[in-house]
Amino acid sequence: MPLSDSASAVGHVTNSSLVADMNGVVLNRERLLALSSFLKDGTTEFGSSVRGRSMGKALPDGSRIHVRLVPQRDLRVGQVVAYVAEDRMVVHRVVRLATWHQDQYLVTRGDATVVCDRPVLALSVVGIVTDHCTLDVWEPVGAPPVRGFLVNRMASSISAILGGLVQLSPQLADWAARRMIRSHQLIMRFCGFVVRRTAGW
Predict the structure, then answer these.
(1) How far apart are CA 17 and CA 20, in angstroms?
(2) Which of the four pLDDT bands, split at 50, 70 and 90, describes residue 38?
(3) What is the CATH number of the domain that holds 118?
C-alpha cells in the first residue's frame, strides 16, 4: 500500500450531545474532512479498526481504536493520528511537524518501520487515537518502541530530511517521500527473496 495502515470507519461517534451510528456509512474524503472539522471540539470520538502491521505492538493488526476529533492546534509529535490519504484513512504516529507559509504539515511513520509517509496537511487529520482494544481490554496507546541506535538514527534522519524539505517545498518533500517509500519496498522485496533462496539451500 502507499501508506502502511488503514482504518475503516466503523463503530460509532459519541459526545455529550451527539450519538450517531456509523456502521455501514461510507464517506468520501471531502465529506469526512468536512464532518470532522465541524465536530472538532475535543469531546467527539468515533470507533474504528486498524488493518495492517506497520504500527507494530502499539496497534496490532485488527485492533479496535477510539479516535478523538481535535482541532489542529492540539496536534503534537508522538501522538498517533488518523488522517485521510486519498481513498483511505491512515493511522500512524506523528514524528515531526513542519510549516510552509501558513500551512502546517505532519510527517508520520508507522512504529514498525523507519520510512516516513508522504507529508500530510494538518487539515487532513481527522483526530488522535486515544486507546485501543485487542483482547477485549481497552488500553491507552503506548509510547514509540525503543529501537537500536542505528535504526533510531536512520529513522530520525529521514524524518528530519522530510521536515526540512516541507519548509522548502511540500511538493519536493512529497516527491522525496514517494521515492523513499518505493526504495524501501524494493529493498524489502530483495531481502525477502534472498531469505527464501537461502532457506531453500
Answers:
(1) 10
(2) low
(3) 2.10.109.10
Q: What is the pLDDT of residues 71-98, one digit of tens each?
A: 888 999 999 999 988 778 899 999 999 9
- pTM across the whole model: 0.80
Looking at the domain assignment, is residue 95 inside a domain? yes
Asked if residue 1 is part of any domain, the answer here is no
pLDDT value for 84: 87
In total, how many domains does the chain have?
A: 1
Q: Is the dihedral of CA 120, 123, 126, 131 positive or negative?
A: positive
User: On the CB side of 142, how many CA atoms lie within 13 Å of its CA?
Assistant: 11
Spatial distance between the Cα atoms of 35 and 6, rounded to a whole number of angstroms:
19
User: Quick one: average pLDDT of 63-73?
Assistant: 90
**Sign of dihedral through CA atoms 183, 184, 189, 194?**
positive
